[in-house]
Amino acid sequence: MVGPASPAPSPALAGTDAAAFAERFRAAKSVTTFCHEQPDGDTLGAAVAMALIAARLGANTEVVSVDGVPPAYGFLARAEEIRRAPLLAPDLAIVCDAATFERIGPVLSSSADWFAQATVANIDHHATNAMFGAINVVDETAAATCQVVADLLPLLGVPLDEEIATALLAGLIRDSHGFSTSSTSPRTLRAAADAVSAGASIDAISRATLLELPIPTMRLWSRLLAGMETEFDDQLIYAVLDRDGLADTGTEQHDADGVVEFLARGRGIRVAILFRELDGFTRVSLRTAQDVDAAAIAGAFAGGGHRRRSGCTIQAPTAKAIPLVLDACRPYLRPEHPRAEDA
Asked: CA–CA separation, 131 vs 67, rounded Å?
């Protein structure tokens, strides 16, 4: 549904396709938003927010997440309606918080005919974004994709209400780790303040996304921490999430979210890694100190992300993936690259 003319794009979105996106978005009759695999608060928050905004303009909408929705994000509007594959007629497909198209998972191949008929828009904040969309709104200075969506909102002509604000604040809190990352800027905090003013609860969202852990999750974390290993004179730390650990604790993949950030808190740690054992392949999550480029390490395996937070998928069992990743980290952890406190 076409509405009134949009205002000029925010300076924060200069150099992106923000104006073209707003025009296409406001004309769409159907909008399908996509989360990346192993969804976190930012991809879910952005996808839900964009679907809500489109619905306010009269479009038919759906949210797709191949891995479903972790219980911690059940507070998001229409969370129970999120699908694992698109059902609406192809029109506008919005991929949220994915550096590559493949990051949305097997739905890309299983719904290949659907995507061939849709216009793909790419909304993201990763520095390694592949610009795979017909329309790309990528701001690598943003702390979260939800911050990019917040900057788009005035262009789309929809006021910020409590449901949209809650979705956006979920992503802002999760990707900034409670507004503590170096990417957190005054613009991030203003977007959060606007969300709180619109009715989003910073207390409830913070507890759900960062603080509260179910007892089975705590048992899983205990197991992971008990099995952690260090290398390179305790500059690198890693843990392995195997299928036995999930089965023994009655948990799922999403229950390990946050473990790698916890590992990165170790004193003197410059690289923290979580290896996830899957069927014949391994997913790798990396967190690094300021002087170690996580995106470059992940890039060696066709992955990407941010300088200090990145990930990749290695088509090999975990036992083979671990030494490959450790070797990729080696140049950053030689004796001639001292820890910050030793420099």
From this structure: 23
